[in-house]
Amino acid sequence: MRHLPNILTFLRILLTVPLAWLLRDGRYDAALAVALVAGLTDALDGFLAKRFGWQSWLGGVLDPIADKLLLFVCFIGLAHVGALPVWLAWLVVGRDVVIVAGAVAYHNLIGPLTAQPSSLSKLTTCLQIALVLACLLHLSRFGDWPAWVNTAMFWTVAAATVVSGLDYVVHWGTKAWREGRASSGDKR
């Protein structure tokens, strides 16, 4: 049972394949169902890991990868079918690429990285997930609302994505600069 959270996380990674396929083929009701199942597995694996102390190094690595992979597939797939602007998809993906590249650089140049997502980053991810679900609902037979609602969500997600991306760059860039200066001072 201890490995159940990791199994659920791996399942979430596997769900990206049918999700991408369903989006490409315009099967939005089914894509919405897969996205909801993925969201439930995310909530369940987090609950189980925390409730029973089943956290693991592997889960700590795989969980954010699964989340980012699902968001990547959704944003690119929804942009591909015209449900959201291409520029927004690239902004969301670009932010994550910058964060991952920064984390790799920090790890290689400064040392081990034990980062927790900031409150702003968590809010941004929640807004991104809400936008994906809203777009899927809008495309499915279950949602119908004025186009301005989606436009407002696009700009809200864009603003949060830019601000949280800048927050990561400034916070971790400053931290790397300070630690780099401290370690070069130690060598004198």
TrEMBL record:
It is a multi-pass membrane protein. It is found in: Membrane. It catalyses: a CDP-1,2-diacyl-sn-glycerol + sn-glycerol 3-phosphate = a 1,2-diacyl-sn-glycero-3-phospho-(1'-sn-glycero-3'-phosphate) + CMP + H(+). GO terms for biological process: cardiolipin biosynthetic process. It is an enzyme of class 2 (transferase). InterPro entries: CDP-alcohol_PTase-I, CDP-OH_P_trans, CDP-OH_PTrfase_TM_dom, Phosphatidylglycerol_P_synth. Keywords: Lipid biosynthesis, Lipid metabolism, Membrane, Phospholipid biosynthesis, Phospholipid metabolism, Transferase, Transmembrane, Transmembrane helix. Pathway: Phospholipid metabolism; phosphatidylglycerol biosynthesis; phosphatidylglycerol from CDP-diacylglycerol: step 1/2. One of its GO terms (molecular function) is cardiolipin synthase (CMP-forming). GO terms for cellular component: membrane. Its EC number is 2.7.8.5. The keyword Transferase applies. Its main location: membrane. Pfam families: CDP-OH_P_transf. The chain crosses the membrane at residues 7-24, 30-48, 69-91, 97-115, 152-170. Belongs to the CDP-alcohol phosphatidyltransferase class-I family. This is CDP-diacylglycerol--glycerol-3-phosphate 3-phosphatidyltransferase.
